[in-house]
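User: I'm putting together a teaching handout on how sequence relates to shape, and I'd like one worked example. Could you take Molybdopterin molybdenumtransferase from Streptomyces ruber, show the sequence you're using, and then write out its predicted structure as tokens right after it?

Assistant: Happy to. First the sequence, then the structure tokens directly below it.
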Amino acid sequence: MTAQDAEELYVEEALALVNNRPGPAFSATAQAPASVSGTPHAAEAPGHRTTPWPEARALAERAARSAGRRAPVTVALGDALGAVLAEPLTALTDLPSFDTSAMDGWAVAGPGPWTVRDGGVLAGHAEPDRLGDGEAAPIATGARIPPDTTAILRSEHGRTDAGGRLHATREVNHGQDIRSRGQECRDGDQLLPLGTRITPVVLGLAAAAGYDTVSVLPRPRAEVLILGDELLTEGLPHDGLIRDALGPMLPSWLRALGAEVTAVRRLGDDADALHEALRTSSADLVVTTGGTAAGPVDHVHPTLDRIGAELLVDGVKVRPGHPMLLARIGESRHLVGLPGNPLAAVSGLFTLAEPLLRILAGRAAPEPYALPVREAVHGHPYDTRLVPVVVRADRAVPLRYNGPAMLRGIAAASALAVVPPGGARPGENVELLQLPWSTAGIQVCFT
Ligand SMILES: Nc1nc2c(c(=O)[nH]1)N[C@H]1C(S)=C(S)[C@@H](COP(=O)(O)OP(=O)(O)OC[C@H]3O[C@@H](n4cnc5c(N)ncnc54)[C@H](O)[C@@H]3O)O[C@H]1N2
Ligand code: MOO
């Protein structure tokens, strides 16, 4: 271990300990460990060869762009949620497609009182008979308007007299409560531009506008390889073995980022199995967990070397997660190596997987979002920190239990705060990376 490694490990440990001292939930202590000052450091630690955090994200975007534009695919509406429109959504019909009643009541012709015709008009029925002047017909919301109707009288605004004639209890304006054909759009109008993310509402609009299928950008296919002999898939930890926390977490997270997850495989610490998996995978993105550091069974680097991969990012100036990596492993195919520590893996998801998948999936970048921190947040001397926070009264409140191996903080968080080297003072604005499912977020989609 070099002196620099020792210092970095010390800083990590110190930060985790400081944040884990007993205290009220959702509070961060303002007390810094002895070696970590709150003063921003512009300088880098000597010998640092890793990529600055913003640059790592830009490199991941660039890697995805280099993969080229993928041919659109046609999918049934039921399979389109979360995908991105490859063509503008153009109305295939007028909406409404016929003049229709906006209310339950009577279709009336001319001024009242009216003679009420026998037999009402219901939604989905054939075109009703023309109304004569002074005539009314009971009508349901969504039913076709009889020709020569001048207004709809709501059921609560009409009464019939002893002679069966209908009187209005309110003034009746010409055309009232008639939704006329084409009010929302005309056949051929552009409803949504190319590149729109398909939300549940977009599915509804597409169906209303006559679509059975839509043309979308194909979802990038992602395969997850979980490395580590120490991992259990069930039961309690025992004898130095621990539960795999990433296998249950990553597939749905990757889907939320726009990927189709084709496989989740557990390979242990077997270098040949990893080699074979990388050699034979056809996924656009392979995500590995663990094995990124330089330990005796950390096989990711040697295996990338063995398959002739090009390392685009080899370590990032971010805590946690600094050993994360990005490599090109084939024509338009990439690998993101997430560190094994679970919060470090989350950091890798935000730093490398999110930008890469966002560009591959054709999604728009999230709007930059910043809030003041409620209290001081310690910084790393040289690296960016990603710290789980909750938003309370327009302040980002740092959470405890934010050590690299911990998920307890982020499980309660709505965002990760991007804390610059040197830290953030109380009230200082910090960028927030929203969790895809956070209530304040706009990107909730797990399919
Ligand atoms: N000499 C050094 N050692 C380490 C450094 C370093 O700079 N020099 N960095 C440390 C940091 S920071 C991290 S992060 C880890 C990254 O290690 P790896 O990516 O090689 O991950 P592993 O060694 O396989 O595992 C680390 C840790 O995480 C646990 N783990 C792994 N997979 C899972 C999983 N699916 N679910 C839950 N926990 C998992 C594993 O048991 C280890 O405890 O390296 C440090 N070392
Ligand atoms: O700090 Mo490591 O980067 O534990 O994630």
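A couple of points you could highlight for students: Residues 226 and 266 are 5 Å apart (CA to CA). Helices lie at 3-20, 53-66, 200-208, 250-256, 271-280, 300-306, 342-361, 408-411.
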